[in-house]
């Protein structure tokens, strides 16, 4: 029930539906990529990723904007290093899922494609090819 953005000085600014403004000093860079859900704020700048209060130092690289997925009552955060072709998956506590990173050259799309218990995701593997993974 809030609109969330980042100010020029790196502060989080939230405006609720009644117009009340909330500012939080979290020490982000003004170039931070920011995602917010009703339960979680995700920020990424340079090789830094912050999921809630958990700060993660990523390998140096060129990262896509993080994506947030809510499936099977779980939150997944994904980010891809397009310099080293690695797709990373994190849970809502900032923990890397087992068996990650995996190969990929783009942001991903995650869903339950075949309606079994496992989730699948698709990303580019080269300029004109896609690859699909299944998460068990």
Sum this structure up briefly.
The chain is an all-beta fold and 136 residues long. It has no helices and 14 strands.
Number of distinct helices: 0
State the total count of DSSP E strands: 14
Estimate the global geometry from the Cα principal axes: globular
Give Rg in angstroms: 16 Å
What is the averaged pLDDT score?
92
Low-confidence stretches: none
- Helical percent range? under 10%
Q: Strand sequence of the main sheet, in spatial order?
A: 4-5-6-7
Biggest beta sheet attributes: 4 strands, antiparallel
Distance between the termini: 33 Å
Element-level helix/strand string: EEEEEEEEEEEEEE
Question: What percent strand?
Answer: over 45%
Structural class: mainly beta
What does this structure look like?
It contains no helices and 14 strands. It is mainly β. The protein has strands at 2-6, 12-16, 21-24, 33-36, 41-45, 48-51, 54-57, 67-71, 74-81, 86-91, 102-103, 109-111, 119-126, 129-135. The model has no long low-confidence stretch (mean pLDDT 92). 0% of the residues lie in helices and 51% in strands.
């Amino acid at each position: 029930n809030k609109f969330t953005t980042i100010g020029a000085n790196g502060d989080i600014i939230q405006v609720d539906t009644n117009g009340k403004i909330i500012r939080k000093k979290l020490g982000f860079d003004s170039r931070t990529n920011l995602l917010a859900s009703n339960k979680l704020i995700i920020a990424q700048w340079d090789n830094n990723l912050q999921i809630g209060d958990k700060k993660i130092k990523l390998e140096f690289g060129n990262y896509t904007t993080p994506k947030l997925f809510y499936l099977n009552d779980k939150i997944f955060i994904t980010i891809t290093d397009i310099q080293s072709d690695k797709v990373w998956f994190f849970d809502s506590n900032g923990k890397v899922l087992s068996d990650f990173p995996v190969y990929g050259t783009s942001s991903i799309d995650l869903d339950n494609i075949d309606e079994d218990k496992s989730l699948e995701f698709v990303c580019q593997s080269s300029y004109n090819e896609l690859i699909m993974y299944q998460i068990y």
